[in-house]
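Exam revision sheet. Question 4 asks you to relate a sequence to its structure. Input first:
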Amino acid sequence: MDISASNIYYEEKISLKVSNTFTKSNFKRLTGLTKYENYRNTLFINKEDYNSLYNKSSYQSSVYVKNSEIIEETMLELNNIGLKAKKVTDYKVDDSATYKQIIKIIKVVVTIVVIVVLFFISYLIVRIILKSRNVYYTTLRMLGASFKNIKRILDIELFINSSLSYISVLLFIHLVKTNIVNVDFIEQLVNYLSLREYIIMYIILLFIVKLLSRKFAKKIFKSTAMNIYNEEV
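Answer key, structure tokens:
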């Protein structure tokens, strides 16, 4: 059986002869140990063989160059004379992965906060718009418009209003990012938002509009037309 060891300082290989194989029944007798399950994939060798494999004289030298432009050339020369040179920069700890993970978590939190704020603001604004249009939609009901027709008109009107409002918000964000309008909080907030977050927020806005449209249409047909006309709903 050949066993080898390799590291940045040396490579060594020794040939061993298998003298015995342990099983669960003879494990304690051969090794003096008890817990067989912990050693079932273990190879036991004597101390002399182990020391010949690992106890090697090794050292490390550092080479400094005056100009960073000749690093690669120096590395090549060292390798040509049989030295296994390694650049310090190859072993530099990269913190970018941790940084990216933190940024990703912050983006998720910011997105959730923005979505929650967007939900409540959108809900209040849409409710105000619908209340101001109460008489108009009640009149349509009196003229014979069905629930389906009124809901369809509501969907179209709210879609246009919400889309125009969202575009206005995007224009305001653009003014902040281009430093035309200075709002520090908004500027820091939008730095964590990407195109995907903007798309998600727009889809959620449309979903809110859809729910409110259905809810308002049901209210119009739930009570009498005159009560709704007098804004008693």
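Marking note for examiners. Strands lie at 2-6, 11-15.
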